[in-house]
Structure formats: structure tokens, C-alpha cells
Amino acid sequence: MWPRSLGSYLRAMPQQPLAQVPSDVRWYWQDLGSCRETDPLLFFHPQNERGSARAKRDRAAKLICAGCPVRLECADYAVRAREPYGVWGGLSEDEREVIYARLDSRHYPRAQGEGIRAAAQEIADAVSPRVLGIA
Ligand code: SF4
């Protein structure tokens, strides 16, 4: 995701421990993301947001991701980095937690493209019409 400004992004996004960011990461796709002009708060839940409020915000973010030309690059990065917060590539925090729990931490996907391969079905399902409630 790419916010309106770096400042608003940093305020909205909890800091990711640097060790989680893959060494081969490239950021070109962030300039092409459909969220570039969107309020980053749509993609990151405020403290204590739960239940239907979170589901509604996540769904709104996912609808933007669904039409994003770099969704796979974004999802790949999020899985490889074990991003803990926010909607990335259409995947919610809860959806990524399921992926993280399934993957072997000793052979965690870290190289470019491995995140997509390791979670192909989840990434495909994340913005399916059924999940978005438009089926
Ligand atoms: S997939 Fe979603 S979060 Fe990622 S760049 Fe695109 S719109 Fe932003």
C-alpha cells in the first residue's frame, strides 16, 4: 500500500521490525498501488477496533485491493515480511495469520515470488466475490 504522504503512512502504520523485511525487497510497486491516494487509515485498524467495524473497514480496503494492478507484488511482500498489521494485497491480518501459522518457520518464504507460491490459494481467495460479499 502507498499512502498520500510518507508522514501519514508512518503515523498510521506500526513499525515493522527491520529483520522481517526481505533483503531482496523492491518497492517500485508501491508507486502503482490503487491505495496511493487513499487514506492509509482505511488499511490499518485503530486500536481496539473489533467486530463489525473492523470487518467493514477491512472489506472497504479489500475492494480497493481487488482492482489494484500490483496486488500480487503487494501480497507477496506482506507474506514474505510477515507483515503483522494492515490489509496488504487484499489479505487481512487474520488471513495472513492463518498463512503464517501454516508455514514452516525454518523454511519461511523469503525470496521474491515465494510468498505468492506459498499462499497462492489464500491470495486468490482474499478478494473473491464471496469474501467481498458481491457474489
Ligand atoms: S494491493 Fe491493496 S494495499 Fe497493496 S498496493 Fe494495491 S491497493 Fe495498496
Automatic annotation (TrEMBL):
GO terms for molecular function: 4 iron, 4 sulfur cluster binding; DNA binding; metal ion binding; protein-disulfide reductase [NAD(P)H] activity. Residues 34-98 form the 4Fe-4S Wbl-type domain. Its cofactor is [4Fe-4S] cluster. PROSITE patterns: 4FE4S_WBL. One of its GO terms (biological process) is negative regulation of DNA-templated transcription. The keyword DNA-binding applies. Keywords: 4Fe-4S, Disulfide bond, DNA-binding, Iron, Iron-sulfur, Metal-binding, Transcription, Transcription regulation. HAMAP family: WhiB. PANTHER family: TRANSCRIPTIONAL REGULATOR WHID-RELATED. Belongs to the WhiB family. This is Unannotated protein.
